[in-house]
Amino acid sequence: MDIRSIITEDFFTVNQDTTVTEFVGKLKQAEKKAGLIFRHDKYLGVVEKKSLLRAKPDSQQAKVENYLMRTPILSEDASVLDAAYLLSQGNFEFIPVQKNRQISGILRALDLLTLCKDLPDVAKRKVKEIKIRHVSSVNKDDPLAKATRIMHEEHVDHVPVFAKGKLYGILSYTDLLMKYINWSPKREGSRKFSKMASTRSARPNWIPFSNLPVENFSTNYNLITIQEHQTLREAITFLVDNKVSDLLVMKGEKYRGLITLQSILLLVASLKEQSRYEIQFKGAQEADLTENQRRVLQTITEREAEKLQRKISQAFKVTVHLKEIRKESKRHVFDVALHIEYPGKLLSSEKSDWRLERALHKCFNVVTKGLEK
User: Is pLDDT at 190 greater than 60 in this prediction?
Assistant: First the structure.
């Protein structure tokens, strides 16, 4: 299963020299949470609103390049499992997708979950079988600074909020972004506070209210929860429909922890894709190969067959014919003939080289280009 159906071209880009003030303003106008940073046509990384919230930069002078996060770049023909692995490694909300060495779109983690929930090994599991994150909690009267410190130190986007020992609400980075950068202090009714918020020096409104109580910012009603006996498929549906990255896991009325988007992606990344191909080697036993060369032959062929599986929807057969051509010198030339066969199609290539792995790669490159025609 590939990712082409969920790649979107709806992404936001800025130059590395853009100031944080300009960047936040453009993000707000474009209604985005993050932007891709470029140096001319070269992709550098991603800057998210929440990373700026952590850093609290001098927004008038600071450049966005100082706050960018390096991300991997995904090929448009990558599998769901490949995409899940890359997204899970850095806890990314999205990663850019490349086509013909150019950034052509992005893949959002939540969109990937829509494909993941239909995988047999995912749909049948229960929430309690997934690693539940036990995040430090805060009381509703605790200062906001305590909650943001937990987010920063424990690398989480949500913190549960309690009152008198019972679950009261949840604080998310989204809550903070909505109220921290675009704050309207209706609760306090302070004219002085309102005046400070509207000054030019406050743009994009980095207002020092870390001592205000958490309950002023947290979501305290209609909490999105899931019971630990429910299916992972249901959990994914809740995440996608509500556009959140974490869910409160409950056992009856008792809070158990958080199930995170990252923990689900880690599970998906650990799955093995069912192979639709058969590999056959001819001449390998007769060739005078070292143990390492035999391992290289097997590994490269399997890896390349997995890549071809993303392009070929039917079952196919991979046949590698190997000949060792003896020359006058001590080195041998390897002649590799590769055949990819599936209903109605036969792709072939033959290459020779002093190095076995190079001859193999040349053959697979030829048949791959043949598939793209």
Answer: no
